[in-house]
Structure formats: C-alpha cells, structure tokens
Amino acid sequence: MTKRPDNRKPDEIRPMEAEVGVIEQADGSAMFKVGDTIAMAGVYGPTNVLPRHMEDPEKAIIRSYYDLYPFSVPERKRPGPNRRSVELSMVIKNAVLPSIFVKEYPKTQIELYTNIIQANAGTRCAAISAASLALADAGIAMRDIVSSVAVGHYKDQVVVDINKEEEDIADATDIPIAYMPRMKKITLLQLDGKLPNKKMKEVIKLGIKSCEKVYDVQKNALKKKYQNMGE
Ligand code: ADP
C-alpha cells in the first residue's frame, strides 16, 4: 500500500468541522471545513424574482454563485467570476437541487452563495456540504441533506478526499461525489482524470461510506444550533 503524503489511511477524510448560522444577515448560512479547505455558504430567499420574466410559475429558481477569495490560494486569484467559477456554480446548484422542494415556492428565487476562504483541493465538495447546511438553516423545505466528498485514484489506489499535494501528482484522479444519505441517491458524480473501469464500484462504495461520515458532521452542526430551541 502506497503511503499518502499526510499519512492518512485510504478511507480517512481530513478532519472536518461544520457550523450553521455563522452569518447574521443571511436567511441561512454555514461553514464547512475539511483539512485546510474552508467553505462558507449563505442563502438569501425565497424572494421575488428580478427580472420578473425569469420567474417560474411552477417552482423556485435557484441562483448559485461560487467563488474563491483572492487570498484562498497560494497565488492571488483575480477577483470576480471566471470560467471555472461559472462552471462550479452550476455544478453546486445541480448537486443540491434534487434535495429541495422547489414546487413549494413558485415564482420565487433562492440565492445560494458559496465562497472558498481557503483552498486545498476538494472545494466544490466542501461548498456543496456547506450549501446544503445553509439551505437547511434558511428553513427551506428539503427531502434530505446533501453530503459531498471527492474520492481519488492516487498511485493505483482508491483513496478518499485527496489533498492538493496528492492532486498535483500527475496521474492522480479526482472523483467528486455528492449523496443524499437518507434517500440513498447520488446527486453528483464527476471524473477528472483516468480510472480503470473495474475500480468504479470501489470508488462509489468508498464515496457513499465517506459521504455518510460528512453527513454525521453536518447533522451535529444542525443539532448544535437547533436542538435546544424549543426549550
Ligand atoms: P476542487 O476545488 O473541487 O478540487 P478543481 O479541480 O477545479 O476543483 O481545483 C483543484 C484545486 O486547485 C482547488 O481545490 C484549489 O486548491 C486549487 N485551485 C483552484 N483554482 C486555483 C487558482 N486560481 N489558483 C491556485 N489554486 C487553485
């Protein structure tokens, strides 16, 4: 078995932390940290849709904005959207959408902002885990929480949550997965790199097992804020 640079076991996720209600003025908010990657999410809505012609009489529309802060990466990232952030905004939206009862909110929009304060690989997954918590914190009707982590293929081994050092190794492959643990449904599966066909099952199995670990951290964060509120 090849050793990982930070000595983690193949199925070991970096230390995780989560907190909800971290932004006072947002309708819902959350922080999700995995290793050195920190994502913040804020939800605003449901509100009226502007411009009006974009509203859907049947359901809420979700507007998703993902970005990395300029100081989140080793070399200053130019502020503002770029191709990567536009794509990841869509990826994050598509990953959380199946969990939301959008038909409960016709003619409205729900704005979802995910910002990466510090990046060390796996930012789309941290953003999805934070986004789902922020949506729950905003009281949006949801069928489930979405939990996300990337599985990797590193030096011929299937490992979870590869960090930047592992990702930068030429043949490392990243397979971001998002999963609804109660519904047992995958809402995101991407593959960045090459993966032998026969390893796909192992990847999915480890991805689901790992998302369940993320889910425990998310659940505890929600419990921490809400379990004593009825007293
Ligand atoms: P993900 O963040 O989901 O792994 P990518 O594969 O696009 O998505 O990015 C891999 C990693 O590369 C990021 O997590 C981050 O650590 C790093 N990264 C992304 N954009 C930049 C950038 N502009 N400058 C430096 N590093 C970056």
Structure description:
26% of the residues lie in helices and 29% in strands. The protein is of the alpha+beta class and 231 residues long. The protein has a single domain, classed as GHMP Kinase, N-terminal domain (Ribosomal Protein S5, domain 2), CATH 3.30.230.70. A hairpin with a 2-residue loop joins β2 (28-34) and β3. α1 crosses α2 and α2 (123-137) runs parallel beside α4 (200-226). The chain starts with 15 loop residues before the first strand and ends in a 5-residue tail after the last helix. The relative contact order is 0.19. The model has no long low-confidence stretch (mean pLDDT 96). Adenosine-5'-diphosphate (ADP) binds next to α2, α3 and β8. Adenosine-5'-diphosphate binds at residues 68, 73, 75, 77, 84, 119-124, 164, 167, 174, 176, 192.
The first-level CATH class is given as: Alpha Beta
Query: Based on helices, strands and strand pairing, what is the structural class?
Result: alpha+beta
Quick one: overall form?
globular
- Biggest sheet record: 5 strands, mixed
Q: What is the second-level CATH architecture?
A: 2-Layer Sandwich
Separate helix tally: 4
Strands in their spatial order, largest beta sheet: 1-2-3-5-4
- Would you count the extended β strands for me? 9
Helix and strand succession?
EEEEHEHEEHEEH
Estimate the strand proportion.
25-35%
How many angstroms does the end-to-end distance come to? 51 Å
Integer tally of domains: 1
Cα Rg: 18 Å
Small molecules (ligands, ions, cofactors) in the structure: adenosine-5'-diphosphate
CATH topology: Ribosomal Protein S5, domain 2
Q: What is the helix fraction of residues, given as a range?
A: 25-40%
List low-confidence stretches: none
| CATH homology-level superfamily | GHMP Kinase, N-terminal domain
Instruction: Report mean pLDDT, rounded to a whole number.
Output: 96
